Amino acid sequence: xxxxxxxxxxxxxxxxxxxxxxxxxxxxxxxxxxxxxxxxxxxxxxxxxxxxxxxxxxxxxxxxxxxxxxxxxxxxxxxxxxxxxxxxxxxxxxxxxxxxxxxxxxxxxxxxxxxxxxxxxxxxxxxxxxxxxxxxxxxxxxxxxxxxxxxxxxxxxxxxxxxxxxxxxxxxxxxxxxxxxxxxxxxxxxxxxxxxxxxxxxxxxxxxxxxxxxxxxxxxxxxxxxxxxxxxxxxxxxxxxxxxxxxxxxxxxxxxxxxxxxxxxxxxx
Length: 269
Prior knowledge:
Number of helices: 7
Number of strands: 7
Structural class: alpha/beta
Helix content: 25-40%
Strand order of the largest sheet: 3-2-1-4-5-6-7
CATH architecture: 3-Layer(aba) Sandwich
Order of helices and strands: EHEHEHEHEHEHHE
Shape: globular
CATH topology: Rossmann fold
Radius of gyration: 17 Å
Distance between the termini: 36 Å
Number of domains: 1
Strand content: 5-15%
CATH class: Alpha Beta
């Protein structure tokens, strides 16, 4: 595997577990030094993926790159500022930013209940907005200006297939991810002449630990060896698209939204 990201510093929010964790490992496999992140040091253990963030750091460092972990709520401006100071103090300026943290997670830590647009509680509405949209904006504002100054950098925002189609449940989450898609386009327009590339990935349902623990899954869609693409994604399939957009192979791709969903959103807008 080419080590074409050697010497680059990557920060992947929400990378203590789930899709973000696989993205972080894939970037490390291409040679990038990786800063991993979660809400708290022990949040990685919620679905049994790691005992704590320290174990995640150790496993990535074992791949022959530098790694350390930061914690904090991306929807909290002070927490984001503290993470930036810690990252720059230990590793220097970030070259690759992957805004992955988020999800259809309410104030209680689980799915909002009710989870429809007209019934969702105020507390869940604010939590979802902070975690999925405001958090992405705050982290971007913290790290992208330095990329603009250096005339170099890559940003990949993680949206969702739900951003491209109307849904009856999870409509606030879908709306916020649609906002992330348009935010990606607007940011790309703003930095087009500054040497910073900005793109977005919209994943379909993927077989993360949280996905399998928080919903009733279709056993037939768990089979990744089937010919049909009417199945759940392997997390690596999502991460491969993200790493591609971070790599030199994507050096002229800017302001795009890549749906990685096996065609689930084929007829969406």
